[in-house]
């Protein structure tokens, strides 16, 4: 992987990109008006750092960070409307939540609006880098969402490895939103799917999650996913929606 700037950049953006390369151990390549096609002679994996946009380019396609539906959802929440994720997680101000499947971090952002302690895990390095850096650089239309983005702690690690290292009851809520193949109408998710990890969740993962979660484990999955029954989740039926939430109480 290499890291570079857009075609148009200034000295400040160049310096920032160099520092990000050092931080994440990625080779910085001077843009010098080179096209993406030319840059691919150096590497098939290119991370482009713009002033307000972070883009990952690979053989699979292009993935640009965007908070997806988080802004729309937060506007509704601020109006007093219900949010299914917050209902399922039952988050409170002082709760600690572990998001084991960060993806675009939309749910993590909503969680961070409610509580100050949100940890998000992403096993795919390209997604982790694009989203973690994108969270810092994106120009949010809601001040509350910008504040929430600064409360996230992100790690490039798979859920099982991280959970095994955590003490018992060290988080109040452990959350999973695995990628699935069924069609979901979202441009942001469609671009993410090209790079996502489709590894199945296992009994070992959920056993660790139950050990670490002081209050509950929450699963978001396709409404006909076998995971709900397989691991004993109480499925929250939502009419006319593709995704349902499952809740497994641990206390």
From TrEMBL:
Coiled-coil regions listed: none
Alphabetically ordered keywords of this record: Methyltransferase, Transferase
Enzyme Commission (EC) number: 2.1.1.-
Entry annotated with the keyword Translocase: no
Protein's name in the database: Class I SAM-dependent methyltransferase
One GO MF term attached to the UniProt entry: rRNA (guanine-N2-)-methyltransferase activity
Keyword Oxidoreductase included in the entry's annotation: no
Source superkingdom: Bacteria
InterPro entries linked to this entry: 16SrRNA_methylTrfase_J, SAM-dependent_MTases_sf
